[in-house]
Amino acid sequence: MQRMINGKTQKIGIIGFPVEHSFSPILHNSVFNALNLNYTYIPLPVSSSKIKEAVQGLVALDFAGANVTIPHKVSIMEYLDEIHETARKIGAVNTIVIKAGKTIGYNTDGDGFLISLQNNNIILSNDYQAVLLGCGGAARSIACSLIDVGIKRITIAARNKQKASSLIESLPQKIELRALDWSSKGFEEVLVDCNLLVNCTPIGMSGHPQESLPVCWECLHPSCVVCDLIYNPPITNFLSTAQKRQHKIINGEGMLVEQAALAFGYWTGVNPDRHLFFNELKKITTTF
Ligand code: NAP
């Protein structure tokens, strides 16, 4: 049965622009419902010029927290009272908790990705070599988490080598890091030693023009795990090709669910059953 909003309902928002594409309101509201928690999750489209006022508004309206999505994950940081260590390392916030009028920024994306690997029995070690395709916010979160784990090497391959290089330069230089233009010859060589290949671009996403990622499939060892951060569709062309070539594949559903569940825990103190999120996600992706 649908919960009623009342005077005691705790409010969580999602700040981004646009936000209507986000699955998060449906996911979180369904799980609040299923667990009978008196919370509600509200989409809050906020333009870039109004971020400061939006943070002040969340506090003034007694919100318990929020998610932050594109394009505000970096720019919102200067308006928060505290930034958790992980979010500071990543340089972006995707979750805000508000306690006694104080705003604290977290980032659950990188940990969400690592947990989704663990759930698929991928145990990272110091001989792993990862290749990330794309150099935006998601690539950055994942690179930071992989550096923390202490794998051997991360290569960021993108259409714009300059952007990939600036990302590499801004990361903690604790492991081997390199940037590549993915149309260069060097890219094929890197794929030969790759154990973990991750699509961190929107190529293949529903509603996005269908292009192919320039991966030399023959170069990859069959044991290389192939991941896509995209969850809609659940199997992108990239994953479908990898699957046909016998690679173990992991899509973005696990990361989406884990980062959401971590944020949910920060707001409510409840560690939710991940199946509740997975079931809801399945309903949404089959409808859209
Ligand atoms: P972002 O910051 O906008 O970065 C996107 C990256 O992809 C950039 O490097 C961009 O290159 C590249 N790119 C975009 N379109 C391209 C194209 N047509 N050809 C080649 N490269 C292209 O986005 P993000 O936040 O990192 O998100 C990336 C993907 O991950 C999205 O599909 C998003 O939905 C997904 N994601 C999933 C989760 C999850 O929980 N599963 C979490 C976060 C993100 P330029 O800089 O050259 O434009």
Short structural summary:
This protein has 288 residues and is α/β, with parallel strands linked by helices.
Q: If you had to describe this structure to a student in words, what would you say it looks like?
A:
With about 290 residues, the protein is α/β, with parallel strands linked by helices. It is built from ten helices and twelve strands. The two termini are about 25 Å apart. The mean pLDDT is about 95. NADP nicotinamide-adenine-dinucleotide phosphate binds near residues 137, 160 and 203.
Characteristics:
288 residues, alpha/beta, 12 strands, 37% helix, globular
Rg (C-alpha, Å): 19 Å
What's the total helix number?
A: 10
- Helix-and-strand structural type: alpha/beta
Report strand order across the widest sheet.
2-1-3-5-6-4
Bound molecules: NADP nicotinamide-adenine-dinucleotide phosphate
Unreliable sequence segments: none
Helix proportion range: 25-40%
Order of helices and strands: EHEHEEHEEHEHEHEHEEHEHH
**Distance from first to last alpha carbon:** 23 Å
Quick one: overall form?
globular
- How many β-strand runs? 12
Summarize model confidence as the mean pLDDT: 95
Approximately how much beta-strand content do the residues carry?
15-25%
List the helices and strands and how they pair.
Blueprint lengths: L9 E7 L7 H11 L4 E7 L5 H10 L4 E4 L13 E2 L1 H6 L4 E5 L2 E5 L2 H11 L9 E5 L3 H13 L3 E6 L2 H10 L5 E6 L3 H8 L3 E4 L25 E4 L8 H8 L4 E2 L2 H16 L5 H14 L1
Helix pairs in contact: 1-10, 4-5, 4-9, 9-10
